[in-house]
Amino acid sequence: MKVKTLCKVLSLVLVFALLLSALVGCGNSTEKKDTTTSQVTNDATKPAETKANPDEPGWKQDTKPITFDWYIHFSWFATKWENSIVSKYVTEKTGVKINFIVPSGNENEKLNTLIASGSLPDFVTLGWSEGLAKTIQESGLVLPLNKLADQYDPAFYKVAAKTSLGWYTNADGNVYGYPNFSMAPEKVKPTTKLESNQTFLVRKDMYEALGKPDMRTPEGFLNALKAAKEKFPQVNGQPIIPLGCHEFTDSGNDSFESYIKNFLSIPREQDGKLYDTDTHPEYARWMKTLRKANEMGLISKDIFVDKRAQMEEKMAQGRYFSMLYQRTDMASQQLALYKKDPNTVYIAIDGPSNEKLEPNKPGMAGGIAGWTITHISKSNKDPKRAIQFMTYMLSEEGQKDFYLGKKGDMWDTIDGKDQMLKEVDDLRNSDRKAYDEKYGGDATYWMLSDSLTTDQWKPAVRDPIKQMVEWTWGKTVSYAAYDDLDPATDSDEGIILKKVKDARGLLLPKLILAKSDAEFDKLFSDFQTLKQQVGYDKVLAYQQKKLEAHKKIIGVK
């Protein structure tokens, strides 16, 4: 009897042990499953393992403190988190803090080092036109935003513009980066005034002292530069710089490529096909004008070597007579000049024009491609919180928080409209740096800014920015279809394009410094020969296919 009883007891113990083991195993299985869902793979067939409520913003579900490392691919970016009212408010609301990582020197060297390490910071923001943007997307170092949204935050699709998503959808069907300042057609209202950042600027007091010369023709342009140098040889004891421009880089100069071509109304297509706009006669005519300006001693050697920091210092001193430049990039310096003497600010005027003197056609600020694109890296410490924070930033609530800031401290409802407090807007218009540090609104943190949303809270443009903005109204043209046409850097076409860009980077200064038109022609001819030798036609063919795809996305024929 005792033996039978013992056997029964042992049997019960064994059954209990098996049940306990099964339960523990299930617990381990569940725990393992939760761990694996924190990472999103590139397997398009893998179903989402967690379900999120598309009607409930994901960021509200978890506001525990977390700090994300955010890489900004611009060495000039000096903005900090935590000091401003906006950053403190966003952290208080979402639990998210940002540690910005910015290159101290050459941006590409820094990012290439990170790529080589196989690990990127949590977020990565860089210009969409950077070849390294495609590199990090195709190397598997960043996560597909659509898969993160499917798994963790379907609300993302409610705040992201469909056209912008379509624009950045890769051949594999995934979206790896989202733009800022994207001018998605479905978000453009009939009342939207299209603006451009591309301007030809002159120092107001000098320009007026010279009798407001017409600088649209090569002759008028050269005469004005010459007169400015003769009448104002020095500015506060420093030599005047008759003409300013964007920074010369390894691949060229925006001022003497896209900007001047837009001002000259050079078409991007001929008979419906892309062509090499370098070969347009208007471009050669004006590049030779710059060569002539250098021959006349009207081009300062500073423009070939100065980086943005040096340029901003000289802008703040008012040392440039004229600039073919992006107005938003010198807004702080403009405010500083205005504070010292309103007559020394820069104003936009009609600049270099084609032989028919057709209106300048500066490009629309942003376009569908926007300015930069932001990625969530595969090394992100919490992809779920990352996509939820991105969704918050793109939402109207997030846009308002980042633009207007905290109610009562930075804005209030006045006359039925949510708007900046006067003292806040006064500082924004008088000392942008101080405004950024104290308040941090109005695109201080611009990584995912959407001007088509924030325009509803935008104060009336005031002096000294007003004139530059209003000059672009009615002239601005959208070149959106031509954005982001470049092939991946490691593709055959991408390798060809890099050779051409590297050659162009070396060529542009040489063209301007050429001793004669004959030397200019030789340099330019050699460059065109190089294009043929490396197979530049293959790049144009690739870009043509992308252009046709872009036109379908935005509904342009």
Care to give the gist of this entry?
The protein has 23 helices and 15 strands. The protein is α+β, with helices and mostly antiparallel strands.
Fold and architecture overview:
It is built from 23 helices and 15 strands. With 557 residues, it is an alpha+beta fold. The chain folds into two domains: 222 residues, D-Maltodextrin-Binding Protein, domain 2, CATH 3.40.190; 246 residues, D-Maltodextrin-Binding Protein, domain 2, CATH 3.40.190.10. The strands form five sheets. Strands 2-1-3-13-4 form a five-stranded mixed sheet. A four-stranded mixed sheet has the order 8-11-5-12. Strands 6-7 form a two-stranded antiparallel sheet. The longest helix is centred in the first third of the chain and has 35 residues. The chain is globular and about 70 Å long.
